[in-house]
Structure formats: C-alpha cells, structure tokens
C-alpha cells in the first residue's frame, strides 16, 4: 500500500505508527495491571480470567477507537490497527463489532448489537470465544496518559487525511461534512470564547483547523526556557516545513488608535524573536524531535479581522514584508484558510 503514497502520505503513515506504539503501551499496561491485581489475590486465577496470549486490534474511527482484545489461538501476542473511514464507533458496534476467533472473524453485532464488555467461554454461532473484550476509547479518557491522548488525536487526524485521499465518494462526502461541521463550530467559538485558553482547547481538540499538516504538537517545549503553543509540521514543494505558532486572545486588538502595535502584539513578536534565537542555537536538538526542519516559519494568531481598519491592514502587511518568516493573522483568517482547504478537498467529491 505504501509504495504508491506520496511523501506527505508516507509521513502521515509514520504519524499513524507513532500513535500505534503509544496505544500498544496503553494496552500492555492494562493487561499488566490486571495480572498484578490477580497476583495480590491468591484465590483468583489470572490465567483462567485472561487466558494467554492476549492480542489486540484497534479499530480506528473519526470519533474514537474500539479496542478489541482476544485470546490468540496462534500463539504470541499481536497488536494491529485497522482504519474504518466513513464509520463511527457507535455505528460500527451496531453493525459490525468484529472479533478474531480461531474459526474466523465473529460479527458480534449479529448476536448482540452495540455490545461492549468482556466475553468468556461462549459460542456465537460456530465461533468459540474463549476470551474477548470490547472497549470504546475516546479523546480525554482518564485511563490514558497525556501522551496517549495525543496519540489518539494523531490517529484520528491521520485517518481523516488518508481517508480523504483514498476513499469511496460517499465516504469523502461524509468526511467533508465532518470538516464543515468543525469549521462551523470554530466560527461559533470565535463569537463566544472569552479566554485564550478556550480557543487553545478548541484548536487542540480540532487540529484540522491548522490544515494542511501531517502533525500537530501542542505545548511544545523548547528546552526549559520556552513553550510553543503549537508546532505544526507540514510540507510544501517537497520540503518539510515547520511552523511555530503563538496564540493570543481573539479579543485583543493588533493596533492602538494611533496606529502603533498593541502591547499584546509586541509581546508576541518578542516571543517569536526568542524562539528564533533558541532554534538557531539548538537546531540539532530540534532535528531529533521533529521530522524535518528544511524551513521554520513563525505565526502569530491574534484578534479579529473586523477590528482592522484599512490603515491597520496596510501596517500589518508591512510587518509581514519586513519579516519574511513571520505571518501575523487573525482568527478569522485562520478560519478562512480552513474553509479554503475544505473547498479544495470538495473537488474530490464526484
């Protein structure tokens, strides 16, 4: 499958693999925790409750994951992920809910539509289930570490982008509808958010707002000195482009009545200058943490377009021309970029 992928898609597959490793760690931690619990209870048998080996498959959807664990008759533990573009967790559980068994894939939904939980030593038609568990995992699950929660977001973003590139037309339509819904929520949030943290949380939970990209890193630390609100990895003309993004409140103005940059904007510009200096001094360190640093650009997202007069717009353009690697944009412009991205993808729907 990967041989015919372009470089951007291959990077997406790398992101998918990174997330897979994090979720495998979660699965293994859960199994180890169960083993330790049984070890503290002499009257219970871990082997009877959890016959070994246990393998797992993660079914990946746009709204979450289904983690299916099962006794593996083949010997040895396996862990795999299967993308299900165009499906939701609830719909898949109601219509599919597949469990690997020695007799083949069991469609549990044919017997117990929508079921989750643990199943032991029972027959479903011709399929014998010695042990299986079905668990829904969504973003923010308290059992997941911060890293694993972000792995889940990576899973969903990767699935969304790959599915848009290679789906059947009805699935493209559904995915585009989901993107349009995100854009609509973004517009509504801009009109109601009172704090910078509210918009940061929305962007963190909906990284597609930074599209096109292949990875988003929130709260990316630059050593112990600085923290970047978002680092966006993307690609342009074959080069790996990394964007360091500073988020300021949408309620703040960019210029004073006299036409000078406001204190908030000047603070953000100083922050960018500090990041640039740090990045130059620690380029080798950054290359180890990010996929590629062919180009580093910087963005400040602040304020609303409706607050900009024609003169303020000219001043903003002048700043951008003077600093080639810096873009200052409003939240409305970020939303417009997302809507343009969606419009460009819409040509795929036939």
| Largest sheet data | 5 strands, mixed
Summarize the amount of helix as a percent range: 40-55%
User: How many domains make up the coordinates?
Assistant: 2
Strand content: 15-25%
| Net shape | elongated
How far apart are the first and last residues' alpha carbons, in Å? 24 Å
Spatial strand arrangement across the major sheet: 3-1-2-7-6
Average of pLDDT: 79
The DSSP helix count reads 10
Q: Provide the CATH topology of the largest domain.
A: Restriction Endonuclease
Structural Rg: 24 Å
Low-confidence stretches: 1-6
DSSP E strands, number: 12
> Briefly, what CATH class of the largest domain?
Alpha Beta
Structure, described:
- α1 runs antiparallel to α4 (146-165) and α5 (169-192) runs antiparallel to α10.
- A five-stranded mixed sheet has the order 3-1-2-7-6, covered by helices on one side. A five-stranded mixed sheet has the order 8-9-10-11-12.
- The longest helix has 33 residues, at 7-39.
- The two termini are 24 Å apart.
- With 350 residues, it is an alpha/beta fold.
- The chain has helices at 7-39, 46-49, 89-95, 146-165, 169-192, 196-205, 263-281, 283-289, 310-322, 331-346; strands at residues 54-61, 64-71, 79-83, 98-101, 104-107, 117-124, 127-137, 215-222, 226-236, 239-247, 295-301, 326-329.
- It folds into two domains: 2-137, no CATH class; 167-346, Restriction Endonuclease (3-Layer(aba) Sandwich).
- The chain has ten helices and twelve strands.
